[in-house]
Amino acid sequence: xxxxxxxxxxxxxxxxxxxxxxxxxxxxxxxxxxxxxxxxxxxxxxxxxxxxxxxxxxxxxxxxxxxxxxxxxxxxxxxxxxxxxxxxxxxxxxxxxxxxxxxxxxxxxxxxxxxxxxxxxxxxxxxxxxxxxxxxxxxxxxxxxxxxxxxx
Length: 152
Known about the structure:
Elements: H1 3-28, H2 37-60, H3 63-87, H4 90-112, H5 115-150
């Protein structure tokens, strides 16, 4: 194995271990119980990183790594869905549920080594992720306005 292959494997291992650490840490705090705002932001950030990894793995046809990405994405998105369930926000739950469907499609495409389906699944996931981020931004703005007017 060449030095460049060793380096690539080392980087991939670090990324995967970093991706798996946050869900394990959060699950040790209570599984898919609702996240607080700080944890929510961390999980969204980790989803972004993992989606980037997935796109790289699709381009490089690293199907096993893509399968790992989809497993990590599923665990993270389940936490996001629980957050929106706790907030009682149906649109957040719906987008999270649709993101989980896209992640399932990504997993299936990985197993079938189907590049076009994998790319489509990532695009669908990114659309729902964008909607989830927009919803959270509106949620934060509403909360800040409420605090401004009702602050003692």
